[in-house]
Sequence to fold (137 residues):
Amino acid sequence: MPPALLLNWQHNQALHEPVILLTIDTAEIPRVPAAARARVEPLGAGFYRVVLLWGFMEAPDVPAGLRGLKVGDTTLDPERISYFLGRETVISTPAASGMARWRERLFSWMRRNEGRATTFFRIPPSRAVEVGIQVEI
Fold:
């Protein structure tokens, strides 16, 4: 279960319907035809796995990839979708981890400075909910 889904369930004790577990993949070709962009797999109980595929020369656009996609009895409208994204914050701790302390700090700093998933995947910030967890290394 994705951590964002688990945390949402633990805090709200409710799930939306349908629940889409989204996977975004990059093909080994420059461009993927629109007809081959999306694959929908029903998982049962209102859950679906959607795989969106872009070529390595394309910039992913999740709302465009989902627009008009048929999931069960629902046709997706990106303006009505809520995107729940997981965000892990890596924390360096004094406990022994097998990694030098300066490397832990450097890795933690690099993770804090990475780009936002909402920007990279063109997800409207007003439609995104980030669910975070702290991970100690």
Summary: The radius of gyration is 18 Å. DSSP finds four helices and seven strands in the chain. The mean pLDDT is 88. The first strand starts at residue 19 and ends at 26.
